[in-house]
Amino acid sequence: MEKSSVVRMWITNKNDREITAGMIESMEAFLSIAIQNGCIGSTFAEDEERIIVYTRWMDEMTLEQFRSSEDYKIKEGSIIQSFAAAGFEIPDDILFNSTAKVLFSNSP
């Protein structure tokens, strides 16, 4: 794998559902663990129609090491449970889930 920074994006349709406290807690816990595992920045956002999660990594190898870790599996399970408890249908509500190589950025 080439050593260039990457972003991981996860976009979910809300379909008129609200973000719950459980969803916020599970996502914040996940993003905190990601930082401890090499993530260099993250965003958890929403608009009227979607939930958007974005993480940035120095390279794809670091991201993939995190994605194969026990921490990732546990926190991902908590996120899925919290979304399901709020009425989301995972994976059907996921609109977009991808890793992309950064070609240009104004941030470090």
How many extended strands?
A: 4
Strand content is 25-35%
Separation of the first and last Cα atoms? 20 Å
Helix content: 25-40%
- Major sheet: arrangement of strands: 2-3-1-4
Could you tell me the mean pLDDT? 95
Largest sheet: 4 strands, antiparallel
- What is the radius of gyration computed over CA atoms, rounded to a whole number of angstroms? 14 Å
Number of helices: 3
Approximate shape: globular
N-to-C SSE string, H for helix and E for strand: EHEEHHE
Query: Which runs of at least 5 residues are low in confidence (pLDDT < 50)?
Result: none
Q: Would you tell me the structural class of the helices and strands?
A: alpha+beta
Please specify the SSE layout and strand pairing.
Layout: E1 6-13, H1 21-36, E2 39-46, E3 50-57, H2 60-67, H3 70-85, E4 94-101
Antiparallel strand pairs: 1-3, 1-4, 2-3
Helix pairs in contact: 1-3
Outline:
The protein has 3 helices and 4 strands. By secondary structure, it is α+β, with helices and mostly antiparallel strands.
Walk me through this protein's architecture.
The chain is α+β, with helices and mostly antiparallel strands. It is built from 3 helices and 4 strands; from the N terminus they run E-H-E-E-H-H-E. The chain has helices at residues 21-36, 60-67, 70-85, and strands at residues 6-13, 39-46, 50-57, 94-101. Strand 2 (39-46) and strand 3 form a beta hairpin.
